[in-house]
Amino acid sequence: MTHPPYGGVATFARAPLVEPSGAWRADVGVLGVPFDLALGFRPGARFAPRAIREASLRYAPTGEGFYDLTTDSFRLAGATFADAGDVVMPTLRDDLVRERTTDAARQVRARCRVPVFLGGDHSVSFPLLRAFDDVEELHVVQLDAHLDFTHERGDSTFSNSSPFRRAAESMPNLSHISTLGLRGLRFDPEAVRAAKARGHALVTMTSVRERFEDVLASLPTGKLVYVSVDVDAFDPAVLPGTSSPEPDGFTYDVAMKVLRHVARSNRVVGLDVVELAPNLDPSGRSELLAARLVVETLCEVLA
Amino acid sequence: MTHPPYGGVATFARAPLVEPSGAWRADVGVLGVPFDLALGFRPGARFAPRAIREASLRYAPTGEGFYDLTTDSFRLAGATFADAGDVVMPTLRDDLVRERTTDAARQVRARCRVPVFLGGDHSVSFPLLRAFDDVEELHVVQLDAHLDFTHERGDSTFSNSSPFRRAAESMPNLSHISTLGLRGLRFDPEAVRAAKARGHALVTMTSVRERFEDVLASLPTGKLVYVSVDVDAFDPAVLPGTSSPEPDGFTYDVAMKVLRHVARSNRVVGLDVVELAPNLDPSGRSELLAARLVVETLCEVLA
Amino acid sequence: MTHPPYGGVATFARAPLVEPSGAWRADVGVLGVPFDLALGFRPGARFAPRAIREASLRYAPTGEGFYDLTTDSFRLAGATFADAGDVVMPTLRDDLVRERTTDAARQVRARCRVPVFLGGDHSVSFPLLRAFDDVEELHVVQLDAHLDFTHERGDSTFSNSSPFRRAAESMPNLSHISTLGLRGLRFDPEAVRAAKARGHALVTMTSVRERFEDVLASLPTGKLVYVSVDVDAFDPAVLPGTSSPEPDGFTYDVAMKVLRHVARSNRVVGLDVVELAPNLDPSGRSELLAARLVVETLCEVLA
Amino acid sequence: MTHPPYGGVATFARAPLVEPSGAWRADVGVLGVPFDLALGFRPGARFAPRAIREASLRYAPTGEGFYDLTTDSFRLAGATFADAGDVVMPTLRDDLVRERTTDAARQVRARCRVPVFLGGDHSVSFPLLRAFDDVEELHVVQLDAHLDFTHERGDSTFSNSSPFRRAAESMPNLSHISTLGLRGLRFDPEAVRAAKARGHALVTMTSVRERFEDVLASLPTGKLVYVSVDVDAFDPAVLPGTSSPEPDGFTYDVAMKVLRHVARSNRVVGLDVVELAPNLDPSGRSELLAARLVVETLCEVLA
Amino acid sequence: MTHPPYGGVATFARAPLVEPSGAWRADVGVLGVPFDLALGFRPGARFAPRAIREASLRYAPTGEGFYDLTTDSFRLAGATFADAGDVVMPTLRDDLVRERTTDAARQVRARCRVPVFLGGDHSVSFPLLRAFDDVEELHVVQLDAHLDFTHERGDSTFSNSSPFRRAAESMPNLSHISTLGLRGLRFDPEAVRAAKARGHALVTMTSVRERFEDVLASLPTGKLVYVSVDVDAFDPAVLPGTSSPEPDGFTYDVAMKVLRHVARSNRVVGLDVVELAPNLDPSGRSELLAARLVVETLCEVLA
Amino acid sequence: MTHPPYGGVATFARAPLVEPSGAWRADVGVLGVPFDLALGFRPGARFAPRAIREASLRYAPTGEGFYDLTTDSFRLAGATFADAGDVVMPTLRDDLVRERTTDAARQVRARCRVPVFLGGDHSVSFPLLRAFDDVEELHVVQLDAHLDFTHERGDSTFSNSSPFRRAAESMPNLSHISTLGLRGLRFDPEAVRAAKARGHALVTMTSVRERFEDVLASLPTGKLVYVSVDVDAFDPAVLPGTSSPEPDGFTYDVAMKVLRHVARSNRVVGLDVVELAPNLDPSGRSELLAARLVVETLCEVLA
């Protein structure tokens, strides 16, 4: 007797609800960061953790896992999940947001094999990454239309354009970042140069489209990888619910090919999905895609 | 450190999440019934339990209760809540829906002082009421634009037009029903006559508007009362999110005056709120009102 | 075996579909005029005839009529309806719109006791009224936030601000107009003076609210009356789906009291409902109200 | 003088409105089945028949047919249409729905060359197919993200996951089913095995994308074919208005290539389009696509 | 030749666009503060200044003013307007927001008789009020469902619950605040006591409804008054587009009666309208009401 | 200190606001034509000029231009813009619309290198093109799903199906039109033949997809070109906000490749973007794409 997706209290994939600091262990621990004050355009990412949880109910795994038609096998069989709820948001105090987010992320990370973080605008990736400051030679694979390596925007150094700059500055263990899906009319020249100076891989969407095998081949192998998916990496036709859409982005299929490749050639130590604004998509397909992306990526990471 | 309303997993008023049959006790136990197959027009009430839970976070009581400006006192202080989740919905099988709903309602009722049920279309009030078949001389106070005492509609005897007819038939202990807010262009003459024959009070919205004190005076006193609020009792301007709106209904203020009066002069044994269709109100005010109505009614019931 | 409101092809109140010039007779003939090029703000009234037809299915009378709870009697029993479809709209050519509308209105009028016209913006009332140019001493009762008696607006004399000015000019039989519900920040002084010079009754919403009995008493008696309901007469809370809403308008109840009074003291020769923009109200209650208003007015007119 | 798409009462492609059992003959007979109680997620398919009718007015053929730019020829010239309205929906009684649907479908089929059925959720394809139980060696070509061959879901054997299982069980003449567009995270292993055991063709979307010519070549030839289009076969970017969208589906172009191929190599005996939820797509493009798909498929079927 | 409301670049009431610090003088100077990071629920007030500007085009005064039907006179004749644009918003840095807002407000105030401020959430009233720190014995009349006199919320002292507390602390010249429209389930007892200790008038909506003449009589007379309108003072039926709606609020008519009374018995030195979230009201009536409120209040203030 | 996109009064790309006939010079002059009475389906293009202006704020160039990641260079550096506002729309009088539009377009054209026109429905391209009647051997490149070369539709010769027919008739200097993106079910055979007789290039979307290099090669070279972008050229998934969407259209990338090619091989003398209906796309991505298309095309035109 299982609920339809519209039934029951929505924890991620029907996982038990736990406290970040509680006495639990699971393969996957989920933490929401409902913060969207750091973006510069259309708000709504604060509603994303709850929306992704609701959408995840279409993809709630059972013990036997997901039967795959093509391979006649089961995925994610036996995997255990826990939902650690959301970081408690203050009003205005972005300093507290970062502090609490890092704290909770550390706690969740300590209790599971793969922590999954549901943003929130992209600024949350900085305090999330900080919880991985002890990982040796940490690699980041970022799917994103934008570089998010800007030093300062709108008089702030903590906007959603800066998370990886801040992380790179404060985390000596952050070795490398690969950003895939770059496109759009405006780039910050200083940020581009700074990222290139650090040896980061800046992969445009044109490259993804035209030289996909080369792009896959250029990704890290055998590393400890944190994956950060800004949903504006996707084509706005595929995922319209985001603050700052840029045309000609990823399809789900191509994004999953990247994520599958990354998961199979490395050890994924964490995953975040950010910049989903469910209020901008009345069709609901944006959060359904985000939820499926999380679950299907876990199929690969835990395979 | 408390969440803003958009933060955290949404249980009713941040109550602990329990199983209907679990080992818990609380002043208030909440159960959702996400079923809307029995209505005859615009679906969406299946989404109501979750929407009301989310909206209830604006009204989550703290231990000290709600400070009331006018009386300089605290309401609902110390009250305990538990959220028993939703009844598990099958596909199509309305017989199973009724069976499971009655079962879960009995379990919740056994564990709390006041069970609160979140519909669902109004057909769920029949299986909910059945869980009170042992209450001696049960009275119902129903806020509703429609009588819902029709024998059969659309070849079914279990539609959302029939819950009280079915309850009256099968529950000898159901002594009396007062229906307030009746209006609209079409009434079922057979249903009206049957209700009148049983001595029910049929109170039109015109009466509520023009003879309010008389209406209050005519309500039951000193009884065990089950309260059923069909949100189409409200004016559609006030609550647009419902399948079958009828103009010229209750304001929140007048509805609360009725509910306060009922709560203070009787013992309320249960409460349901039904026919909310959050998908029909993009402003979100419909579920906010429904959630507040539940919490504020509880202020009176538990006073 | 009757359809639920969402079933079947939507003719008005499930009436047979006829041609305006066909061989039919009915108590009520319905004609749509899906024209909204003459308004100066937000379009959408072109969608109103179809939306009102759909909404009318909630109020489709059966042969026995509508049972009234309060009077224990049946309304509209035995009344026959025909739906003559819509006037065929050209592109841009408002001259053709007026010509075709008057022609079709004459045809429908010749075949029924009470023609009902579904606008369109208010400019259509001029060509509709022209179909009544043979009615001796024609009176108009207009529910409207605006006077619509302006000579010229935006370089046109046929805008939705001018229908009654054009009718008054060209129809010597148009004796008198009562406009109820006037309010808003801006009036055309020339139009006000011209209307007053003709002896029209200009009744503000404040008067309706504060001196309702006097207002009713001032309405025509024993006349042949054409009723024109601009839905912006209603409070935007009650009916948000209109191009140019003005706060503090009619509730449904008060509007029906006016229409009932007019119908009972006069012979209503025609009715139009205009300026409904269903695209501006995702709750759908605007067209439901408009449809009910038509049907309930007919209950009084055919009583 | 023809209506713009927003004018006139909306029958399919402006066809005359008939009764399923009436005295009519046409090349194409259209029947709506506004039923969506059997789906397990987001309702709205009950609104599809009316929405597709409205959208079809953009594609209403004239006598001379549709001029094709590329071939300099006319399509669908002289074809006659009739709209038989909708099956009358009861409340809750899915047994009656199936009975009435099969009856009406038989009546429509008996009066036209190609019956077109507008769902409704996919459960209606079972009672529709039953109306073809006398067709020798019936083949089905199904465009769908899901297999819909599940034995039981949610305690029911008549959900929208089961129509083809029920048909296969009860119709010995149902020889073969080709399902194209399969994708998604979860498949029912028992259903997959049962379908394969019957020799059905299970074609994933990956195959459609990567081996399109092979897929076309594998389709039936020279058969009597019933075509069932579940609109969730389409990419949600292309058609967002559906209950259970799955990313990476058909474009219109590729779907039409499949349908054209099927129509040209076989005799199409019936067509259904199901699972459209117009309420989930405020842009209106979902029903426009569904309507065009029906009309353009008929161009091929009647060529 | 004047634009319809949808034509032309939208400055407030088609006023010339100026810089706050420019060389201009006008009766009315308008300044927007598109800031909504300090609210605790649903964002969107950042979009309000632009939405109110667009809506104001329906109320753009001409030189001759607005003709009033009832008094046969013209209002706002000859009044001059200037639109000083918006305060430039940084990212996250609420300290800068307050600083820049006070600076720009001072500049605008220095150049006009009546500055009008378009919020933003209610937190902006603190930096706006600071621009009036030289006004002797400043009185505030606040229309609001909430008191907004809380010391701290969500770890911040600058939330939209605290603007008047901060102003009272830092502005010795702020003599008195009258808050009208108070209602809702939860009040901050400490804030209530602090406001009462300062002698503020706390007027509930119940008082407004039941003792309106007394309420008017209790308002300041002969003072220099800053008016702050939080649009959640309105009934959500009347104005649904706001973050935190509370049922049973002001109608437009009653609110205007208050504002008219205040304007006629005092000198209004400034006006703000805050907490409008146009994204929450697809009917657009919320911003239309806000715009009209500003213009009609100015009719009284400049009379 | 620059505004975020939601801040400040929205002129195109933050250009100074000028009068068409004023004393200004700029590289780019922008003129809006908020007219949508000539389309035959869903209105809303009247809202497009303002919506595109708002969206353009995401792409407001700074003096140094847009840094391009791939080429490490700056685009549009130093370009100057002016926003000449909108043509003043009358009511109904399409003759005046054409007259005023041509007049204003001539004025804008005289003051800038590249005039950009924001429609409105496609009928406005006729009066816009007339402002170029002195350009020797004018070529048009039109991106469009439809030919728009019909002689008469709906009894009018000035509908949005006829702009290029009218222009071809009245402008002997209009040498050639290339239309790219043609598709859909219905073409006007007379229009197709007339266009072919004039030697126009009619390029279907199928050709664009399958023979892209040939299509590019067939475009004019070394000419004076007016570019007209009907946004229904785009795939409705990519740009849903348009009156008459047709599936399988341009992606942004392919459209830009065409426009880049045209701009680099010719001199672009003017650009219009028409048929955007922002009211049909609640995600807002339609106007964001239209705004970016304008700015990015200018990057090429001014390169």
Automatic annotation (TrEMBL), chains A, B, C, D, E, F:
Q: How is the cofactor bound?
A: Binds 2 manganese ions per subunit.
Q: Which UniProt keywords apply?
A: Hydrolase, Manganese, Metal-binding
> One Pfam match, by short name?
Arginase
Question: Which portions of this protein are annotated as coiled-coil regions?
Answer: none
What this protein needs as a cofactor is: Mn(2+)
**What does the entry list as the binding residues for Mn(2+) 1?**
122, 144, 146, 148, 230
- Residues given in the record as Mn(2+) 2 binding sites: 232
What InterPro entries is this protein classified in?
A: Ureohydrolase, Ureohydrolase_dom_sf, Ureohydrolase_Mn_BS
Annotated PROSITE patterns: ARGINASE_1 (PS01053), ARGINASE_2 (PS51409)
- The highest taxon in the source lineage is Bacteria
Q: Example GO biological process term?
A: putrescine biosynthetic process from arginine, via agmatine
GO-annotated molecular function = agmatinase activity; metal ion binding
Question: What family name appears in the similarity comment?
Answer: Belongs to the arginase family. Agmatinase subfamily.
Full protein name: Agmatinase
Question: Which organism's genome codes for this protein?
Answer: Deinococcus yavapaiensis KR-236
The top of its lineage is: Bacteria, Thermotogati, Deinococcota, Deinococci, Deinococcales
